[in-house]
Design brief:
The chain is about 15% helix and about 15% strand. The longest helix has 10 residues. The protein is of the alpha+beta class. The chain contains one helix and four strands, in the order H-E-E-E-E.
């Protein structure tokens, strides 16, 4: 993202999609924006730091590892 200069607002949606097709790793790094801040959410649980409301239920990573239990409490390793 940084190396390609994709933070520049001059790219059209079609150009950004072309970048994602050429560099699929870009799709595997979700950028989440909330009123609290912006994060590159990899690993996925870093999104919890910028949510405006508490997590209300279970949250499991893509590989099946639990991050938040069914009561919304973060599971510490």
């Amino acid at each position: 993202y940084d190396q390609l200069g994709l933070a520049d607002d001059s790219f059209s949606d079609d150009q950004l999609i072309d970048f994602m097709l050429q560099h699929p790793i870009l799709i595997n790094r979700p950028i989440v924006v909330t009123p609290i801040g912006t994060r590159l959410c990899r690993p996925s649980e870093v999104v919890l730091d910028i949510l405006t409301e508490e997590q209300r239920g279970a949250f499991t990573k893509e590989d099946g590892e639990p991050v938040v239990d069914e009561h919304g409490k973060q599971i510490k390793k």
